[in-house]
User: What shape does this take?
Amino acid sequence: MTERIVVVGGGTGGTVLANRLADDLRPELERGEVEVRMVTDNPDHVYKPTFLYVPFGKKQVHEATRPVSDLLDRRVTIQIDEVVGVDTDGKSLSLADGGAVGYDHLVLATGANLVPEEVPGLKEGGHHFYGPEGAERLRDALADFTEGHLVLSVIGVPHMCPAAPVEFVLMADAWFRERGLRDQVDITYTYPIQRAHGIQTIADWASEEFEKRDIGLETFFNAETVDPDEQVLETMEGTELDYDLLVAIPPHGGSDLVTEAGLGEDGWVDVDRNTLEATAAEDVYAIGDVADVPTSKAGSVAHYEAGTVADRIASRVRGQVPTATYDGKTVCFIESGMDEATFVEFAYGDTPVVREPSKPLHWAKLGYNESYWLTARGLL
Ligand SMILES: Cc1cc2nc3c(=O)[nH]c(=O)nc-3n(C[C@H](O)[C@H](O)[C@H](O)COP(=O)(O)OP(=O)(O)OC[C@H]3O[C@@H](n4cnc5c(N)ncnc54)[C@H](O)[C@@H]3O)c2cc1C
Assistant: This one.
């Protein structure tokens, strides 16, 4: 009987995983002993890091997408549909079109969702760059913004790419300086916890950079409502902050599928942090943003996790004991302006060292972004 491996989600984690499985299980796939199927609700693969550059006119949103079919190994079966239910006892998925898909091994790679509606007034009063429409609207708003108070407020953790909001304000600082407008623009960055970033060394580095560049920092700042008419943010802590342009990282949520299937709280899948196997069901894994592991919600994490899960599933298919584990490896280039960047790498429990920002690291980030399409296909 053909063993069915089903990957839900055609983003970074799902695509890297499906291609790795196609490679690792080539003989079994060719003999028809195994099927690798991707079910994804978007025919396009979206490379979200591109959106950071859109507000500054450095990238266009169309550069962030490619058809997922162009990125997948031809041995992977693609099914464009939304998964609306997971039955882990019956090992079956229900689909929005009314059909069902059975599995022997299931990997959830459904990412994270933006839920701005959790904060009254946010949709009307705030901009963001975490999706294509938001990034384009923000580009237009920034182009018209020549004076006033720009506030970047991160609303809630966890959120995708913890460094991206820091990058945004450092880039905005450089961008306004280049235009000779910085004296007329105040910039404030707010973060919900007691420091500027979840990781102490990155938070220390960011705080120093903010101070050098006259960027205000507010910590323990949890926006509760936005008043779009008065242009005021009100916080759970009882404070208020006026803005002229609000860039907010909206609250994030996992997938309803996960909670309804009893796989985890708030839509994030409860997994063993090393094997990425779901704690509540057999033969179910989660990778990428939807997996609840103690590291960043980042593409690099999804990528390394995909390698581990591909190895583990290939071992299981071959009747071997899986030994591959994920150690929390995360790598991250962090833009520190318009032409310099730094870089950090760490695993679970590590304290990353923030490298001296440099132009070559900025070029490395841009170079990686271009070569991403090869990485997703498993060619790098
Ligand atoms: C502005 C920005 C900048 C970033 N910069 C970086 C960076 O520099 N470095 C870095 O490492 N990371 C960065 N990230 C984070 C990175 O993009 C994500 O962590 C990464 O995309 C996670 O991959 P994923 O596969 O888990 O989810 P995604 O890539 O979001 O893919 C999820 C997929 O699942 C599909 N899907 C969802 N629900 C269903 C369903 N019910 N049925 C079927 N399909 C479904 C979606 O359509 C999508 O194809 C950034 C993110 C943003 C927003």
